[in-house]
Amino acid sequence: MNLDKLTVAECQLLADLLPDSPQTVISRAHLRWGTARAYAVGLTGEGFETAVIEDPGCPGEPMIFSDNAAQIAALMPHIPNWFCVNVMPAMAEKLAPLLSQKMASKLRQLEDVYHILQQSPPAELLAQPQVRLLTPDDLSLLQAAPPELRGYDPEKLVYKTAAAGAIIDNQLVAIAQNYALTEGYGDIGVFTLPEWRGRGFAAAAAAQVAGWLQGNGRIPVWSCGAHNQASLRVAEKAGFVENGRRVYLILEK
Question: What does the pLDDT read at residue 2?
Fold first, then answer.
């Protein structure tokens, strides 16, 4: 199969064809921003058959949008450097045996849980004194932080989307960041340095970013693996409720 990455114009077209939802917010945002690695079969102005979209923050973990399991299984050997795919639950059941055979590998499944926040963030979280939204003046602080905190594009966080952090002794120790933004939704991801966990910093920072998103007309989205109990607890503390699930099919070679 001859398969080329989508051009910038094709990525824009694909973004327009995907519905705006909690499950598509990351893919649509990075298609629009030109930062996604994407492939598609049958892409026209009217629709597509299969789309494979990888965002820069999760290399090797593309999301797939398709109703054709056989086509996905035939397509994936031609896409480089991936180790798992993310699909809808009904597709996972159909795709798993086909992909396992095509890749000559066992597969492990992991549920990907999506949450949304439709009410205001809890007031007590917004009042955490050591946590605040970051501004362009904090760029050097963010750039000096460990990779897990600063993300792949610190400038985008302070100039184009939003981030909030816990700052202790002029150092960033926890962060919540809006990694993807569409017309209706914005995702939130969090990370706290191990020695500062258990103090509520992640939930407080998430509440700050959620408030920013809601103030800009977006619904905050939270997603994580079903095994990530710490992340699920933070989402619950911040008032998020489950909205849907997808499934990771992970190669075990």
Answer: 61
DSSP one-letter string for 44-83 = -SS--SEEEEE-TTSTT--EEEES-HHHHHHHGGGS-S--
Q: Are residues 91 and 138 in the same domain?
A: no
pTM: 0.93
Residues 99 and 152 in one domain: no
What does the pLDDT average to over 5-14? Answer: 97
Count the domains in the chain.
2
* 182 φ/ψ sector (left φ>0, alpha ψ -120 to 50, else beta): beta
Q: How many residues in total does the chain contain?
A: 253
For CA atoms 86, 87, 93, 98, the dihedral sign is negative
Cα–Cα distance between 120 and 111 in angstroms, integer? Answer: 27
Domain that holds residue 19: 8-104
Same domain, 15 and 52: yes
